[in-house]
Amino acid sequence: MQKKEILKDEFIFETTLKNGLKVYLHPKRKFVQAFAALQIGFGGRDFRYLINNEKQELPKGTAHFLEHMLFENNGSTLSDFFIDQGADINAYTSRKLTSYYFSTRDNFTNLLKRLLDNFVDYNFSETSVKKERKIITQELSMNDDSYSVKAYKTLLKMMYKDESIYEDIGGSQKTIKEITIETLKKATTDFYHPKNMSLVLTGNFDKDEVIAMLDVHPFVLKNWHEYQEITHKTDLSDKSKHIYKREDSALDTNIVEVGVKIPEAIFNDKSLDHNIITNSFFSMIFSPASPLYKVLKKKKLHNFTFSASPVIEDDYGFFNISIETKKVKLFSKTIQELLIDLPNMKFDEKIFKAYKRADIGRAIKAFDDVKQSHSLVKRLINDGVDLYTFVEKSKNITFDDFLVYQNIFTKNNIYIVEYLSKPLNKKKNK
Amino acid sequence: MKIIKREIDSLNVYYMPNKKFKTIDMAFVFTNKFDPKEINERNFLTEILMETTSKYNNQEKLSLACDNLYGLDKTSNYHNVGNMSITTFMARTINDKFVDESDVFSASLDLLLEIIFKPKLFNGLIPKKGVEELKEQTEELLLSIKQNKNAYTYYQFMHEYTRNNRDTIAIFPEKRYFDDISSITVTNIYKKMIEEDCLQIFIAGDFDHDKMDELIKTKMSFYKAKTNLDYGFQNQFISDNKLNEVTEKESTGQSRIFIGYNLGFDVTKKNVSLMTLFDEIFGGYEKSKLFSNIREKLQLSYYVYSRYNEDNNLFFVNLETSKQNLKQALEAVEKELKACQMGEISDELFIQAKTNLTKRLEIAMDSQTKLLLHNIIEYLKYGSAFDLENKIKTIQEITKEEIVSLIKNITVDTIYIYTNED
Question: Between A250, A289, A364, which is nearest B94 by CB?
Answer without folding.
Answer: A364
